[in-house]
């Protein structure tokens, strides 16, 4: 069985029982959406760390510090998504291998290291994540879980701000 299949199977498994007043089939759908975002966010967090380590150029130190702050923010989001999964009775599929197998974020280009090229590559990926997180607000709201929709709203606002911090470097 491939890792991808294993991750999907874990997603599809019936949730643990809980006293939360959301039906098991609804919780299973919410868990699937949340675990997808555990994977996407974990992946972008690791790519932001990669950028933190490998960026080069005259503006190195500012970007090195900024990328670390952005990665830390994403790490918090991974934790919030994963713990919402477990609060809903699910299994958080958040190992590095599970994240890599399921992530929809494009892999960071290995040859990119010049400061503004790195900023642009990250901006593309933050925008892509921002789009799917914004879609998840409505998706989870329509499933009747305003708490998860609120979590996605909070994360969406943070990602938009991170994207602004990145794009400001490209607009001067
Ligand atoms: Fe560091």
UniProtKB/TrEMBL annotation:
Gene3D superfamilies assigned: 1.20.1260.10
Signal peptide: none
Lineage top rank: taxon: Bacteria
Ranges where the Ferritin/DPS domain occurs: 33-171
Pfam families, alphabetized: Ferritin
Family, per entry: Belongs to the Dps family.
NCBIfam families: PRK09448.1
Name of this protein: DNA starvation/stationary phase protection protein Dps
Organism per entry: Gemmata algarum
Lineage start: Bacteria, Pseudomonadati, Planctomycetota, Planctomycetia, Gemmatales
Gene name of this polypeptide: dps
């Amino acid at each position: 069985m491939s890792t991808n299949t294993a991750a999907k199977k874990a997603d599809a498994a019936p949730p643990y029982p809980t006293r939360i007043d959301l039906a098991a089939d609804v919780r299973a759908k919410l868990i699937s959406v949340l675990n997808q975002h555990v994977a996407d966010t974990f992946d972008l967090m690791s790519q932001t760390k990669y950028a933190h380590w490998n960026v080069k150029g005259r503006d190195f130190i500012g970007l090195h510090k900024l990328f670390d702050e952005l990665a830390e923010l994403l790490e918090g989001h991974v934790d919030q998504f994963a713990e919402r999964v477990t609060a809903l009775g699910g299994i958080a599929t958040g190992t590095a291998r599970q994240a890599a197998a399921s992530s929809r974020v494009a892999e960071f280009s290995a040859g990119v290291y010049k400061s503004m090229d790195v900023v642009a590559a990250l901006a593309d990926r933050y925008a892509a994540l921002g789009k799917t997180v914004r879609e998840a607000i409505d998706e989870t709201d329509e499933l009747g879980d305003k708490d998860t929709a609120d979590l996605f709203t909070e994360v969406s606002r943070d990602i938009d701000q991170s994207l602004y911090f990145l794009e400001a470097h490209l607009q001067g």
